[in-house]
Amino acid sequence: MRGDRSLAPPDNAAFEPGRSTDPAIGAPAPPDAGRPAPAGSAAVAPAGRRRSGWPVVAALAVLVLVALVAAVAFGQARITPHQVLGALARRLWHGSAAPGTASWQETVVWSIRLPRALLGFVVGGALALSGAALQGLFRNPLADPSILGVSAGASLGAVLTIFVGLAARAVWLLPAGAFAGAALTAFIVLGIAAQRGRGRIFTTTMLLVGVAISALNVSFTTFILSVSLSSYDVGRQVIHWILGGLDGRTWDHLLLAVPAILIGGVAILVHARELDALLLGEVTAQSIGVDVPRVRLVLVLGTSLLIGAAVAAAGPIGFVGLLVPHILRLVVGSMHRTLLPACFLGGGLFVVLADLAARTLLVPMEIPVGVVTAAVGAPFFIGLLVRRGPEISEG
Q: 233-279 pLDDT, tens per residue?
């Protein structure tokens, strides 16, 4: 980002309650000149007083490694962590084992649990990272990955793929259909918003168009679901996918999701400072050298890639993109250079643990991971609203 780096906002600058806003641009107005700026306001805090979030990021990375080992070790068939590490070391050192020579522990670890755990991590990280980016872009703490309609578009694409029978032909056709629906929705939203803005993509217009397109996608999905219930197998597949889950996921699903998540994640991470500037308002960001229309376009496309790939690989999983950025913003602050990587790690950790609970709570029955994240996320988020009130609910 061009401009003075000292203009980055302090912790929680975006979501401070009680600040006035300019109705024309929706940007936070400066504090009254006659009194000191309150803590957490848009005034620039001294660099030495800013909260460092890197220890939290490092702690999250360690917790992710522990959670991945636990996710691979625990299940209906218990495998000790020592056996997990031994199976991974043998496979990585010797390559693929000859047919019939691998132990059942190695087969379970390498072919079933490890790709599932890794996919849960990248999907959760993608959802949380996109949620943090959208909350910063819209300057709204209630923004989440469904706000642009991309998640609903991915669901429609996947359900349509199942309904017409393409999903049964190859394992990659279902995520491909979901990703196509997400991409089409993103371009429709961007196209309408750009036309309405006479060549410039306005944030408010994108928000309204995204809500409308999302409702349209949900209605089409519901229609296909109601029609597919006449066929037991098709209806069961559609309902199972809509609930969101990681069961049956393989290395193919992981390889399909990772490239898009990597591209979208890098696009967002390299614009961390621009997101900091946007927290102060678009006019202020432009005044310090930020190309707001270009940054906005890159962020929307990056989040669309993340959401489309995540939903295509695991189905719709709720509350990750809304809850995780809230919690980590309270811990590491609003500086996006630490908030964004923390959200990726925290979102991945949340989904891995939720999937572990989904597989072990009601053995031998398995709960869809989307049900677990909603069951945990909704009460927790309500608790945050009750406890912190205006700090969260007002943007």
A: 888 888 888 888 898 888 888 998 999 999 999 999 999 999 999 98
Query: At residue 172, what is the residue type?
Result: W
Give all domains of the chain, ordered by start, each with its CATH number.
55-61+109-393 (1.10.3470.10)
**3-class SS at 16?**
coil
For residues 343 and 395, the answer to whether their CB atoms sit within 8 Å is no
- Rounded to whole angstroms, the Cα distance separating 157 from 180 reads 7
Class of residue 389 by CB neighbours under 10 A (exposed 0-12, middle 13-18, buried 19+): exposed
Q: Tell me the CA distances in angstroms from 246 to 12, 112, 131, 151, 372, one per residue in order.
A: 34, 11, 21, 17, 12
**153 touches 185 (CB < 8 A):** yes
Whether the full predicted model's pTM is greater than 0.85, yes or no, is no
Cα 68–70–71 angle (5° rounding)?
Answer: 65
- The half-sphere exposure of 42 on its side-chain side, counting CA atoms within 13 A, is 24
Q: Rounded to whole angstroms, how far apart are CA atoms 300 and 104? A: 44
